[in-house]
Amino acid sequence: MALLVADKVGVWRGTGPSRRQVVREVSLQVASGELFGLLGPNGAGKTSLLSVLSGLEVPGSGGVWLEGKPLARANPGRVGLAPQDLAFYGNLTGRENLEFAGQLYGLAGAALRDRVERLLKSVGLADSANRPAITYSGGMQRRLNMALALVSDPGILFLDEPTVGVDPHSRNLLFEQIRGWNSGGLTIVYISHYMEEVRELCPRIAIMDHGQVVACDRVETLLSRERGILRARVEGEIGPELPVRLGMTPLGVENGWISWSCAEPARMAPELVRLAEQAGCRVRQLETRPADLQQVFLGLTGHALRDE
User: Fold this and answer.
1) pLDDT of 119-175, one tens digit each?
2) Cα separation, 305 vs 77, whole angstroms
3) SS3 letters across the chain
4) Do the beta carbons of residue 243 and residue 272 sit within 8 Å?
């Protein structure tokens, strides 16, 4: 059953002659318990769509449903949002920020204290809870930002570019926490322009470009649309008929390396070696490069993901 449904959502920005549509007829579904990725370059419309999906903004057209109800009539506490811009008070401690947010959702007394302590522990800030948030490192601030989004015990959590400005170690800690929350049943929508992060975390993704969802599917299905690269150094001459038999397309020769594009290059490599040996050639070196999301994006849009 879909937890979140968006149907033909449209969003406009500006007024008069400068008015433009930044989200165009977007439809998608996020299942309960899913870790779903929303991938696209800066300016693709991801944050504008997020504003609608999280209830911060009413769509100009179309609609959004959460747990079977129109989002406007759903319990606002069921939606958690960790925005790209950090949303806490720097002069308050980590604990005070969480306590204040909990009070806004009607928590008090033992229930509030328990929720705050559990969140501080879950994001690794228990030992720093009484320090002003402004003194936290970039990674700690990101973790506090996510903890604040979980104060209301939401059914769905939106994470907008959660690794901006963090070091690799902090990034890995954030990933561990995200996976842990998701394995506990929390539905998460991860928004990013980093292909590697989305592929690493999310089994299913939507790809946005110029305000539209240009593809939405499981990552392996999207990757299967594109061809990888197989490179080899060979003693002897591989005739053109051998790669053709394997469905490989020549890409050229550079510094002694012959390159072909092909589906599943890792599977094609031993077949190429076998056929080359039968033809009296020796393959001295092999390299394989599987298809990646950059190729998928390029194939769908005609330009690279980081062109914008």
Assistant:
1) 999 999 999 999 999 999 999 999 999 999 999 999 999 999 999 888 898 899 899
2) 34
3) CEEEEEEEEEEEECCHHHCEEEEEEEEEEEECCCEEEEECCCCCCHHHHHHHHCCCCCCCEEEEEECCEEHHHCCHHHEEEECCCCCCCCCCEHHHHHHHHHHHCCCCHHHHHHHHHHHHHHCCCHHHCCCEHHHCCHHHHHHHHHHHHCCCCCCEEEEECCCCCCCHHHHHHHHHHHHHHHHCCCEEEEEECCHHHHHHHCCEEEEEECCEEEEEEEHHHHHCCCCEEEEEEEECCCCCHHHHHCCCEEEEEECCEEEEEECCHHHHHHHHHHHHHHCCCEEEEEEEECCCHHHHHHHHHCCCHHHC
4) yes
Angle, helices 109-122/138-149, rounded to nearest 10 degrees? 140
- In angstroms, the CA 42 to CA 209 distance is 9
Asked whether residue 236 carries a pLDDT value surpassing 60, the answer given is yes
pTM of the model: 0.88
What angle (nearest 5°) sits at the alpha carbon of residue 114, between those of residues 110 and 116? 120
Question: How many helices (H) does the chain have, and how many strands (E)?
Answer: 10, 14
Strand partners, 190: 37, 159
Question: Please, what is the end-to-end C-alpha distance for the chain in angstroms?
Answer: 36
Contact between 98 and 119 (Cβ < 8 Å): yes
State the amino acid at position 43 in one-letter form.
G
- Residue 182 and residue 172: Cα distance in Å, rounded? 15
| Residues 6+ positions from 64 with CB-CB distance below 8 Å | 4, 5, 6, 7, 9, 52, 53, 55, 70, 71
- C-alpha span between 125 and 144 (Å, rounded): 8
Segment 74-105, tens digit of pLDDT: 998 999 999 999 999 999 999 999 999 999 99
Domains of the chain plus CATH, in order, are 2-222 (3.40.50.300), 227-290 (3.30.70)
